[in-house]
Design goal:
The chain is 25% helix and 26% strand. The chain has 2 domains: 6-174 and 336-366, Medium-chain alcohol dehydrogenases, catalytic domain (Quinone Oxidoreductase, Chain A, domain 1); 178-313, 3-Layer(aba) Sandwich (Rossmann fold). It has 11 helices and 17 strands. Helix 4 (176-189) packs across helix 5 (205-216). The protein has 368 residues and is of the alpha/beta class. The strands form 4 sheets. Strands 3, 4, 5, 8, 9, 16 and 17 form a 7-stranded mixed β-sheet that branches. Strands 12-11-10-13-14-15 form a 6-stranded parallel β-sheet, with helices on both faces. The chain starts with 5 loop residues before the first strand and ends with a strand. The radius of gyration is 20 Å and the shape is globular.
């Protein structure tokens, strides 16, 4: 396979607004090092982490949610010295993009050359050896290293997972970040068959993945989303839909469940946090992997103490998770939710569409 010296890439030049995304056609093609592979990218999905990293929303100085304005222009209060998910500093220029599907184009020293040509999707988590929860030594694709908004990227060989599927490259690019996050979010809650779970933010990439993964576990799913998206979520297996903005959210959940619920999975946060906690049964579990409506919440600590609740966060995805998801994809047990595709040079427009939150599932950038 002939490898060019230059490639197309969208390069993030610093924290801020959409103007920080620079389309280039003369970016150097990376070379795989020992134990690495070079992947010819076919498609790369968008995720909230792209917006969060670009705007430095992860810094504690930002207290508002991921608004359309903030996502486009950046946040004046952002502390760019701690702009990554792990509280560290991002180095620029950086190619973002965590959800990659493509083919192996070349291999580095120590990697079997027979891998060249394999169709792969990438596990974006390059975890620390030994303690995989060590955030300081864990690398995320498109954050601490260059990712998928380009023609090529390099990654550890073990993170390029072979896949045999009839799904398109764009469909495969809907899985890695969203479904890996959703699987970790669900697993952290200890969801069991027969339990009732509420998914808040159910129409987004992570939320719609969580609906499917909860159904595979044999749980009854109550989804919170806009009325316009209820049909799609019912098709994914949600038993009941609660319309976003319901003034008595805790009451609506209890009505839909005929009582308090076992588990809440939340990617929204903000004002909905306390009503979700109120809706949990004694010994219930709440798990969060995001706070797009705002990171600061009011919390009555008595709910935690006297209801024996379990609250967990879910960020670093355990090793082996992506390989298990690939097995589910190959067996046809997971449905890709491809909302729309954009060409690489229109990444900024794709992010604008993503931030409007009118879609169900994932938006993907195609490089072929």
């Amino acid at each position: 396979m002939s490898i060019p010296e230059k490639m197309r890439a969208v390069v993030l030049t610093g924290h801020g607004g959409l103007d920080r995304l620079e389309y280039r056609e003369d970016w150097p093609v990376p070379e795989p090092g020992p134990g690495e592979v070079l992947v010819r990218i076919a498609a790369c999905g968008l995720n909230n982490t792209d917006i969060n990293t670009r705007t430095a929303w992860y810094s504690k100085s930002v207290t508002e949610g991921i608004t359309d304005r903030g996502g486009k222009q950046g946040f004046d209060s952002a502390d760019t010295r701690v702009g990554s998910w792990g509280g560290g500093e991002i180095t620029f220029p950086r190619i973002q993009g965590a959800d990659v599907a493509g083919h192996i184009a070349a291999v580095g020293a120590g990697v079997d050359a027979a891998r060249i040509g394999e169709r792969v999707i990438l596990d974006p988590w390059m975890l620390a050896a030994g303690d995989w929860l060590d955030a300081g030594r864990s690398i995320y694709l498109g954050s601490e290293c260059d990712g998928g908004y380009a023609d090529y990227t390099r990654i550890r060989s073990e993170n390029a997972i072979p896949i045999d599927s009839t799904q398109s490259d764009a469909e495969l690019a809907t899985y890695p970040c969203a479904y890996g996050t959703a699987e970790n979010l669900t697993a952290r809650s200890g969801l069991r068959p027969g339990e009732t779970v509420v998914v808040n933010g159910a129409s987004g990439g992570v939320g719609s993945a969580a609906v499917q993964l909860c159904r595979l576990r044999g749980a009854r799913v109550i989804a919170i989303a806009s009325a316009a998206k209820s049909g799609m979520l019912t098709g994914l297996g949600a038993a009941r839909i609660i319309v976003r903005g319901e003034p008595d959210l805790a009451g609506a959940i209890r009505d839909a469940a005929n009582g308090p619920v076992d588990v809440v999975l939340d990617v929204v946060g903000g004002a909905s946090f306390m009503p979700l906690v109120d809706a949990l049964r004694q010994g219930g579990r709440y798990s969060s992997s995001g706070a797009i409506a705002g990171p600061l919440v009011e919390f009555d600590l008595r709910q935690l103490v006297y209801k024996d609740l379990q609250l967990t966060g879910a960020t670093i995805v355990p090793p082996g998770t992506m390989r298990r998801l690939v097995g589910l994809i190959e067996r046809g047990l997971l449905k890709p939710l491809l909302a729309r595709t954009f060409p690489l040079r229109e990444l900024a427009q794709a992010q604008e569409t993503f931030m409007q939150k009118k879609h169900v599932g994932n938006i993907v950038v195609e490089t072929r």
